[in-house]
Every structure is written in C-alpha cells, then in structure tokens.
Amino acid sequence: MPKWLNDAVFYEIYPQTFCDSNGDGIGDIGGIRSKLDYVKSLGCNAIWLNPVYDSPFMDAGYDVRDYYKVAERYGTNEDLKALFEEAHERGIRILLDLVPGHTSDQNKWFLESKKHERNEYSGRYIWTDSVWEAPPQYRLLCGISERDGNYLVNFFSSQPALNYGFNNISHPAWQKAPSDPDCQATVEALKSIMRFWLDMGCDGFRVDMADSLVKNEDGDKPETCKIWRSIREMLDKDYPEAALVSEWCNPRVAIGAGFHCDFYLDHDNNGYRILFREKDQSTGECNAVFAKNSKGDITKFLDEYLEDLKDTKEKGYISFITCNHDTPRMTRLFTPLEAKIAYSFIFLMPGVPFLYYGDEIGMSFMEGLPSKEGGFSRTGTRTPMQWDSSVNCGFSNAPAEKLYLPVDTSDSAVTVEKAEKDPDSILNTLRKVITIRHENPSLRSDGDFEVIYAVKEKYPFIFKRGDFIIAVNPTDIVQKAPFAFDGNTVFEIGNHSKEGNYLIMAPQTLLLLKI
Ligand code: GLC
Ligand code: CA
Predict the structure, then answer these.
(1) Which ligand has the nearest atom to the CA of 397?
(2) Pairing of strands 243-246, 204-207
(3) Is the pTM of this model over 0.85?
(4) Number of other CB atoms surrounding residue 330 within 10 Å
(5) 55: CA distance to ligand 1 center in Å?
(6) pLDDT at 126 over 90
(7) What is the pLDDT, as a whole number, of residue 104?
(8) Nearest ligand, CA 104
(9) Which of 14, 24, 245, 395 fits a 20 to 30 Å CA distance from 384?
(10) Could you tell me the distance, in angstroms and rounded to a whole number, from the CA of residue 50 to the centre of ligand 1?
C-alpha cells in the first residue's frame, strides 16, 4: 500500500473545462499546469485527471482511440510529462483515468478486429460467430462490419467491449474462458498501457468501470477480481508507489481484488445517495441526510458504511467524493450552506477524499444544456471552471460561442476570485478543514471512526476520530443530543453550546472538537 495515500486529498480535473491556455475554447494540459499552485493552495496533494487520450469523443474521452497518445486538443505526450514533473515538484501526484473495459470503435485494435481475415486482434473484442447469432440478453451491434458476426458493447454503441472472457459460458461457440490466449492477450495489452504511463511519471490510475471486465459473472465477480489481483501484483513488484482506485462502488470486493481505494458513488438506494442526493420521487424535494429540512436517516448510511469499513480495515480505503463528472453537483439540491456542511463532513471522514473541480466554490449544476460529447444528463456538471471576473470567467479567451460548454457569467456566479475574499466561503472553509486533516494523523485516511450518537431520524450525528469529536447538524432547527464533553473547538461552522449533559447545536452547524 503506497504510504502517501494515508494523507492524500484528491482534486478531480475534467480537462475540457478546467482552464484553456491557447484560446480554442477547450481546456488543456497547459491550462492545468498553470493552475497547479491553486490546487496546492486547496491542500490537495493529488489529482485525478479524466481521460486525456486520443479519442473521437463520443463519450468525452472514455472512448479511447489511442491509449498511448494524448489527444491533440489537450496537448502532447511531452506536455503531459511536463505536467507530471511540475506536479511532483509541488508534492502533487497525478492519477490518469484508465479505461480497461472498452475502446472507441475507431481504435486500431477494433478496426483490425472488424476485418474478415483473421488477425492478431480478431479475438480482442467479443464477437458472436455469425451475424445471425444475436442472443437478446447481450447488447450487440449487428450487421455493420465485413466480419461475419455481431459485437458486444460495454457502454454506448461506439464503445465495443474488450474481450476478457466469460465466467458462465452459455454460448460456447463464441464465448471464451478468461484463460483463453485471446483474453490473456487483452490483459497483457492493458498492463503495457499502464507501464507506459507509469514509466512516464504518472502515479497510478482511477479505473473506469473496473467491475466490467469478465462477462456473465454475478456477485463478487471472481474472474474480474483475478485480473485486478494480477495487476496489483505487477504494481507491488515494479511500481510500489502507484495507486489504483476503482469505480466499482463495492469496497469489500474491489479492495479484496487489489484496489487501494474504491469510490462511494451516487447509486440507487445506497448510503451515499441517502447522505447527499436522495429526492422524494413525487415532489422532487431533497430528503437527503444533509438537507436542511431533512428527516433523513443516518442509520441507513451507517448500516452500509460500518460493514464496509470493517471489511476493508487496513486493506484499503473508501473514497467519498463531493461529486464527479457523472453525477449532479450537490448544489443542484443544496444551498451553499448545506453544501459547505456536506463537503466539510466529507473531509473529516476516514478514507481518501475527492474534491470535484468547482465544488470548492459551490459551482452550480447548469440546467437545460443540450448533451455534449455523450454527457446527456451529466452535461450540467461539466461546465467551465469559474476563475475570476475576466472574459468567460477566466476559463478561456475564446469567443463565448466557441467554448466547449457555456460558462456561468451571471453577476451572481461564484468565482475563485470572489470566494478568496470571503473568509466564510466554501473555498476558505475547505482550506481550513483540509489543513486540519493534514495536521492531525487521527483525521487522515486510516484514522479510526467510532459512532457516538446516531439515532434514526434524529440529529445531530456525532462521531469520534481518535482525539477528535465531530458533531453535525445539517437541519435548519436547533438539535440536541445527550452528550457531555470537555474539549477545545478546533473548527466550527455556526455555533454550539452546552446545557447540563446536553450538546446543543444551532441550526446548520458542524463542530470539530479536540478532546
Ligand atoms: C464511467 C465514467 C463515465 C463513462 C463510463 C463509460 O462510469 O465515469 O463518464 O461514460 O464509465 O466509460
Ligand atoms: Ca485549449
């Protein structure tokens, strides 16, 4: 386990909309390089960079055409190498996004695989053995190649699934076992890609749809796990400082498979959604635990979390995110104060936390945008970073109509420049919280977590991390808990008081107490 993860705080950068250095309306590596000091000023010492590989951008770069080449619109491989170096000079690590489950349908492997003549890549993807073979349980594209067969897609139609084999084989004519040489060749190709970027200086990978490799396997996905374990062996041996973070949302399984961290994501009926994004289906009203008018139930979250924490203890970390490029920003449902409390809580939890660009200033989810590069309902979360009061909020010098996505230039738009000046801004609040986290080992990734007060539909929620007590009352009414304490307030949003053996938390407050 790379030691640095214990004190890592990540910043996720969506390259197309972070900072445009050459005025073409699209963010780029030069732009990111110019903002490394800003990232550092947040207390973030690691970056997750969404895909920057050559791509036709049918899914914003998650459709990779060439795994070995930086997309022209972002710069060159040399620029990326320079980014690694400049980040390292500042003590910042960089994870690239690895897309192992599928490629673009324009990837040269796939162009070869489509050919009638057998070649090295014929078995790199999953093809049925005839165009008339199209079992309805699979998402297949049919009748569009010279090769006689249909191919499986992994996500959008332009993303053919790479072939890692099948666990339960139902159609032996075309489904291979993971041990088949074709499937093994796919694993080797993946390892080569990883080595290429690690050798250039990247610090590891966030792995896209990490659970999607071997098909027809349920539950704990043993064959997919076997592949990741072999990759982890490669890292332990040759790149022991490299980190592997999964998009899996099942920490027990993912960490068991060799990942160092696994995300808690905004998925149906899970603990993360209950905390931050739960909506009443009929009224659309937010009833997440962190909503101010909430009757949210913290125990539902804890039922899941405490089990996951126990199962992964000392093996890997659960990663909380403020948001990511796939899910609405919390500010779609939350006011700035609600968001500030929710984000602060995230950086006071165990595991390796991730801050999504723009959340630190409370950027909003832009409603009603047409889909951009396969974004669909995710597009409103991907708009340009708002830096300052200059043209296009400092994102780009291009004319507004040339921008990758519109930037919020309304008078009320938040910017880094404005947030810097307000001591109570989300930005300055998170800087404080993250600094305190770095300064105190018990608040870092591997620090303990103990529930002190968590009652169904009641607040505050109180927990302990080593020599710290954290109490949070996200609701807009006064809340009290039977909890007597002695300690120093290290950090606070709003205020609290004591009444006999009770802790009284004013509306919408968070308290960090050193005992
Ligand atoms: C992951 C990515 C998402 C992408 C999908 C297909 O969920 O986060 O943005 O569209 O995988 O690669
Ligand atoms: Ca640019």
Answers:
(1) 2
(2) parallel
(3) yes
(4) 29
(5) 14
(6) yes
(7) 99
(8) 1
(9) 245
(10) 10
Q: What is the model's pLDDT at position 414?
A: 97
Give the Cα separation of 346 and 361 in Å (integer): 15
Fold type of domain 3-98+320-441 = TIM Barrel (3.20.20)
Fold of 448-514: Immunoglobulin-like (2.60.40)
A 10 A CB-CB count for 401 gives 7
CA dihedral 85, 89, 91, 94 (to 10 degrees): -10
| Mutation test residue for ligand 1: of 98, 207, 209, the one with most atoms within 8 Å of CB | 209
Phi-psi bin for 31: left (phi > 0), alpha (psi -120 to 50), beta?
A: alpha
Q: Where are the domains of the chain?
A: 3-98+320-441, 448-514
pLDDT tens digits for 391-411?
Answer: 999 999 999 999 999 999 888
DSSP state of 184: H
Which of 495, 491, 513, 512 is closest to 504 using CA atoms? 495
Which amino acid, 137?
Q
Does the beta carbon of 266 sit less than 6 angstroms from any atom of ligand 1? no
Residue 39 is predicted with a pLDDT of 99
Closest ligand 1 atom to Cα of 325: 9
How, if at all, do strands 10-13 and 204-207 pair? unpaired
